[in-house]
Design goal:
By secondary structure, the chain is an alpha/beta fold. The protein is built from 17 helices and 5 strands. Strand 4, helix 15 and strand 5 form a beta-alpha-beta unit. It is globular and about 65 Å long. The two termini are 16 Å apart.
Length: 373
């Protein structure tokens, strides 16, 4: 391939892009504990902008018992529970009836997709097989997850972007009508007269959720490198300097407590994921989170300054391509003028192929490429 001169910078999300999506951990937790599908994701997203999850990702609060108490309260909001049953679930059912599952992969429920969503032994290469578990989970005596060990990318204080959880406004090509309907179902759809008269007494009891256990299972799951995007990132690092775009990370993140195994200050410097990027913007460190336009402007400002320091003419939004797994985050980037690539849960290799087309760079090994043709 011939490298493109149109792309001066590639901006990566972290969770659900460079590492596995915590949405998979949410689905597993719901299935294991008999919690209605999508309730957790729905409760977190509808708690925005000032729910405990959003405040954590802006760095306004820390990971402590006050956070877990507040997070649990958000997951047990009675009005949201009623809203979930009376409008969201009924709208989702209607969408499932008309959706093409081979094309959409059930965008509405955000469940884990086909079997290739998990890396095979070949994908993992030489990675060790059993990652260390957080102290909180070890104390509960939970079994091993069977996931690969931590990679260099997986040991940052603010590795995060575990989950942005906004509504999916930007779906894959050909699914815009369904995507629009999804947004309406979670925000502005009007309940029927029968739904409007529903009371909390007529609903099933609100599920019990251990917010602390859920949180750490999400964090643990999102330590594992994505089997396609992460190797592409490593290939980009090796591109000749004259052809290499600036590599940036823009992540909704959390800051782990001092001394915690996931705190990047607790591991050797070479394990710091920032070493993979020229610029790293983490929400919890700057007090902003996606999709707030100001955090995008912040990363653009840093990109522009770095390019000029290197003798370039600067970087504008149209010089960038942005990869994210959340439609709302892509929407803001696109409105600013960036090229965008949707990273679909379970089909992240497609994003790598699209990134190859945009950049003109070879980002897959031949064996992977042949298997995905």
């Amino acid at each position: 391939m011939t490298p493109s001169k149109d792309i001066k910078a590639i901006i990566f999300d972290i969770g659900g892009v460079c590492v596995l999506s915590p949405l998979e951990a949410i689905t597993t937790y719901e299935n294991k504990n008999g919690i209605p599908s999508d309730w957790i994701n729905y409760a977190i997203s509808r708690s925005a902008p000032n729910g405990f999850w959003q405040r954590l990702e802006r760095g306004e609060i820390g990971i402590d018992q006050d956070f877990f108490h507040g997070f649990n309260a958000d997951l047990r909001d009675q009005e949201l529970w009623k809203e979930y049953h009376t409008s969201f679930r009924s709208s989702k059912k209607k969408l499932k009836d008309v959706a093409n599952p081979t094309q959409l992969g059930d965008h509405v429920s955000l469940k884990t997709e086909a079997a290739d969503s998990r890396p095979t032994d070949q994908d993992r290469g030489a990675q060790p097989s059993n990652p260390p578990r957080p102290p909180q989970l070890e104390a509960r005596g939970e079994g091993e997850s069977g996931q690969p060990s931590l990679s260099k990318l997986a040991k940052d204080t603010t590795i995060g972007d575990p989950v942005s959880l906004e509504s999916e406004d930007v779906a894959e090509s050909g699914s815009s009508n369904v995507s629009s309907a999804t947004k309406q179902s979670t925000s502005s759809s009007s309940p029927s007269p029968q739904e409007a008269t529903a009371t909390l007494d007529s609903l099933p009891p609100l599920s019990d959720i251990d917010a602390e256990s859920l949180f750490w299972s999400m964090m643990e799951h999102s330590r594992t490198p994505d089997p396609y995007v992460f190797p592409a990132l490593l290939r980009l690092e090796k591109v000749a300097s004259k052809e290499k775009p600036i590599l940036a990370a823009l992540s909704n993140s959390v800051i782990f407590p001092d001394g915690h195994p996931y705190n990047r200050l607790s591991v050797p410097h070479e394990s710091d994921p920032r070493s993979h990027f020229d610029i790293y913007v983490a929400s919890a460190e700057v007090g902003l989170r996606k999709p707030n336009v100001d955090i995008y402007r912040l990363v653009l400002d840093k990109l522009n300054k770095l390019d000029r320091q290197r003798g370039g003419t600067g970087v504008k939004a149209e010089d960038c391509v942005f990869l994210d797994d959340i439609g709302e985050n892509l929407k803001t980037a696109k409105e600013l003028g960036m090229k965008t690539i949707k990273v679909v849960l379970g089909k992240t290799w497609r994003a790598v192929k699209e990134l190859e087309q945009v950049t003109g760079l070879d980002l897959m090994d031949e064996k992977t490429r042949r298997s995905k043709l």
